[in-house]
Design a protein that fits this description.
Blueprint lengths: L1 H20 L5 E2 L8 E6 L9 E2 L10 E2 L24 E6 L9 E9 L9 E2 L6 E7 L4 E5 L2 E4 L2 E7 L4 E11 L5 E9 L16 E4 L2 E7 L7 E10 L9 E2 L7 E6 L4 E5 L10 E7 L4 E11 L2 E11 L2
Antiparallel strand pairs: 1-7, 2-9, 3-19, 4-13, 5-6, 6-11, 7-12, 8-9, 8-12, 10-11, 12-13, 14-15, 15-16, 16-20, 17-21, 18-19, 18-21, 21-22
Bound molecules: copper (II) ion (CU).
Length: about 325
């Protein structure tokens, strides 16, 4: 009897494991990833974006739900034909280092719970990380893409140094095991020396030279509510030769984050062909509403990651 019960139990576990594993690269509950600052951008260029609804914001330390599936890019969202359940996760944000101040390292803690407040403890790896955290200044001039460490019991920690005083928004995206991708955000007020605001203006031309690469962005449409293909085209800036040796960054040829000028929409988009090496890298998304969006593409070549920002204007 006891044996039978045990067998039944094992079957259930196996089933749960299968369910949990469905569609994601792997299931992983243990910590990974030292937090890395692999992406910072702080200049004024512009770009084109796309996004997920990011709910209302309730100020400092408040949590907000940012729309549960944030356009996990083309061909790669809610995956493998299997519906994932909404997790209704909640994140409690706190600063262990006290009120964040410009130029000082802030220790950010995120506690992920379910709707009832019980910790969510298992997360799926998503592009090699259990959580991706994007911090932007309210003018979208500052952009940081970091990866919190998973401690245990739903708790993630990460350090970030905000460069100047003012309002910032933080977006955390993660996949509770067995559930859909979640994006949660919060607003943060940073004290200290402020920086001049940079006006968010659409780029006249979507071409930019970054770290020796000339990068062009072509949009298949600039209309809201349509599938928009984002094609990045890479050339060696010195020789004009097509770049064909882009390297995988977090398991894909590139990562694109798009945030609306009002900070309400957030999209983390992955490439259609993750194994691409250039000269093209293609992403697909949909701009939910008209407006100005900033688009950051993150790529890697020659062991170095670089960020290409553009600002675009999306029409009705
Ligand atoms: Cu990330």
């Amino acid at each position: 009897m006891a044996k039978r019960k045990a067998a039944l139990y094992m079957t259930m576990i196996a089933l749960a494991g299968m369910l949990a594993g469905c569609g994601s690269n792997s299931t992983n509950t243990s910590g990974t990833s030292a937090s890395e600052h692999e992406g910072h951008e702080q200049s004024s260029p512009a770009a084109a974006p796309e996004a997920a609804e990011s709910g209302s914001h309730n100020g400092h330390g408040g949590d907000e739900k940012a729309g549960s599936n944030n356009g996990h890019g083309g061909g790669h969202g809610d995956m493998d034909g299997m519906e994932r359940e909404q997790a209704n996760a909640d994140v409690k944000w706190s600063f262990q280092s006290g009120e964040p101040a410009a130029g000082a390292e802030a220790a950010i803690e995120l506690n992920v719970t379910d709707a009832e407040g019980a910790p969510i403890e298992k997360f799926d790896l998503n592009h090699e990380k259990l959580m991706h955290l994007i911090a932007v200044s309210s003018d979208l001039n500052y952009f940081s893409h970091i990866h919190p460490n998973y401690e245990s019991g739903g708790k993630f920690t990460v350090k970030e140094t905000f460069p100047a005083a003012g309002a910032y928004k933080l977006f955390a995206d993660f996949i509770p095991t067995g559930a859909a991708q979640q994006t949660m955000s919060t607003k943060v007020e940073v004290t200290g020396q402020a920086a001049a605001k940079v006006e968010l203006k659409a780029d006249q031309e979507l071409v930019k030279t970054v770290e020796g690469q000339q990068v062009k962005l072509a949009l298949s449409t600039t209309k809201a509510g349509e599938e928009a293909k984002l094609t990045y085209i890479f050339e060696d800036a010195a020789t004009g030769e097509p770049v064909t040796d882009l390297e995988p960054y977090l398991g894909a040829v590139g990562h694109v984050v798009i945030i609306s000028g009002d900070l309400e929409k957030y999209l983390h988009v992955h490439p259609l062909d993750e194994a691409a090496k250039g000269p093209d890298a293609v992403f697909a998304t949909e701009f939910p509403e008209p407006g100005v969006y900033k688009i950051w593409g993150q790529f890697q070549r020659g062991g170095k990651t670089f960020i290409v920002p553009f600002v675009v204007n999306i029409q009705a």
